[in-house]
Design a protein that fits this description.
Largest interface: A-B, 99 and 99 residues
Strand content of chain A: 5-15%
Distance between the termini of chain A: 18 Å
CATH topology of the largest domain in chain A: Rossmann fold
CATH class of the largest domain in chain A: Alpha Beta
Order of helices and strands of chain A: EHEHEHEHEHEEHEHHHHHHH
Largest sheet of chain A: 5 strands, parallel
Structural class of chain A: alpha/beta
Strand order of the largest sheet of chain A: 3-2-1-4-5
Shape of chain A: globular
Low-confidence stretches of chain A: 1-9
Mean pLDDT of chain A: 94
Oligomer: homodimer
Helix content of chain A: 40-55%
Radius of gyration of chain A: 21 Å
Chain lengths: 322, 322
């Protein structure tokens, strides 16, 4: 583990096998193809596979054949199915392509890493999470530019294989994203705050607004429209994301409940919203003014690279090349 | 009150005097001018008045002179100052232009109506609230098209003067908006749900995300950006809006707290977010698919027009012409 991996500035030529062709998997298949990679994909649904083929991509409903091809061509396998389907996919990989490097683009990292471990695939796995999406889903919603300029978390856990890590990071860079290295659990805690809690609050706002009937919905302008946008996402995807990150989401939700309860008391007792509004405004400004600096000088495989990468990610750093 | 007002399809030629030249007042001055009205404005700040003049508009820092001109030309006076300044403005109107028709564009209606009453101006007042805005403020942020296609609530309270009501509705239509007739208190309850609660939740989300440090803020994508957008609004404007609608906001906030507390329990006890997510998604769909139908056949001044207009607004109707 102490030998630095040979890293060049050229992008990888490793083939990419995408399992799951929804919004994220379908966008990834397109983006990797556009980056010049040899690619093919699998989807359970015949309709999605036919749509992908009609768009000129290689796709199949045969999971076993798809995994065997990955083994034959030593492809990087990308798991891009919803959480409930991950176990079936891992079973097929363990049986037919156990030596391939594996990553995933599922939103919760610790849960997937644990499932990978149960299938004995931990050594060849480095998780990933592109922070991109729309409220739409399915192959047709995909876009080869979905990841351009987006952030892509590459799991940087103790014992990560430097070569696999590099392959995953290069795939993200090839898709036009910037890489944020993060420990899986830290990623999940951060995602709860900035991705899962926003969904919970959007659902809550949608219900409370709707309870005001047609007058309220008819008066709704930008603040309600933007604040409820992600409540338009498919419920099964929102649930999979939120329920897959239960512990971290409960922590974030408890913090939000405490803030709201205090604000309620302040408004009722002192007719004021000062504390909440001033703190919220300052927080939003920090978000708007955040500094996305470039990580450099850390090579995967160097002594202490995992800790160094992780610490850089924690401070807001991003890899823009490898 | 039972004689119908003579209503024609031509827009009004009544001059418009705008008191307060911030985002809303400044946009209104521009829009009314573009609609062919004679207009002039007042602002306390010399810088705003100079900026408005530099853009070719008539503006002054002299409140008394501005109000006297409104009396001389029998203008429709529009109060467009923040809530804390409303009392001073009403004092000047009561002294120098007590017979002018008066409206306002402040977000909370019942509180302003009460202040108008205390100054003995209730008979000539019909409140208004254009549901438009951005997170910016000040004269420079104004836009003559800000109200185009937006909804503009015209207060439709018991005893409203049909002629003043018609003037206010015509100003809204002239600015390109659609008129929603609503009782002041019903407006305030609806606004709490779709405008003030969204601000409270946005502030809460901004704080909870920011507590995750640079890693969390760096991973934030669309759901966090949109969910916190209005936390970027000036705190004093958010506070004035929320605190001015205390009672209705507490009701909406309590409903949100109850939903979130139930969701917290469901997630902790059953690892599920089903109830909240399914209901939130259904509510968002109702919002997306709401029917904005056109009100017709009710003339201000007709027997029972106030109740008929109000009932139409409650069911989602909008006036597109008068």
């Amino acid at each position: 583990m102490c030998q630095p991996v040979r890293v060049s500035d050229t992008s990888s030529s490793t083939p990419v096998c995408v399992l799951g062709l929804g919004l994220i998997g379908g966008s990834l298949l397109r983006a990797a193809t556009a980056a010049g990679r040899s690619t093919w994909g699998y989807n359970r649904s015949n309709a999605s596979v036919e749509a992908a083929r009609a768009d000129g991509f290689e796709a199949d409903t045969d999971l076993v054949a798809t995994a065997k091809r990955a083994a034959d061509e030593n492809a990087l396998i990308v798991i891009a199915v919803p959480v409930p389907a991950v176990d079936t996919i891992l079973g097929a990989i363990a049986e037919h392509a156990p030596d391939c490097p594996i990553t995933d683009v599922v939103s919760v990292k610790a849960e997937i890493a644990a499932a990978v471990g149960r299938h004995g695939l931990a050594k060849r796995y480095v998780g990933g999470h592109p922070m991109a999406g729309t409220s739409e889903s399915g192959w047709a919603a995909g876009d080869e530019n979905l990841f351009r300029g987006a952030v892509w978390v590459v799991a940087t856990d103790e014992g990560a294989d430097a070569a696999v890590w590099t392959e995953v990071a290069r795939l993200a860079l090839d898709c036009g994203a910037e890489v944020v290295p993060a420990d899986s659990k830290e990623h999940d805690r951060a995602a709860a705050r900035i991705s899962h809690l926003p969904h919970i609050l959007a659902e809550t706002l949608a219900i409370t607004g709707d309870a005001g009937g047609p007058l309220a919905l008819g008066l709704a302008a930008g603040s309600f429209r933007d604040g409820t946008r992600v409540a338009g996402s498919a419920p099964r995807l929102v649930r999979a994301m939120c329920e897959g990150n239960q512990e971290a989401l409960l922590t974030a939700l408890d913090e939000a409940l405490e803030l709201l309860t205090k604000a309620r008391t302040e408004l009722a007792d002192r007719s004021s919203t000062e504390d909440l509004v001033d703190s919220g405004h300052a927080a939003r400004l920090r978000y708007e003014q955040r500094d996305d600096w470039e990580i450099s000088g850390i090579a995967p495989g160097d002594d202490g690279w995992v800790m160094a990468m992780r610490e850089a990610g924690r401070r807001g750093g991003r890899l823009r090349s490898l």
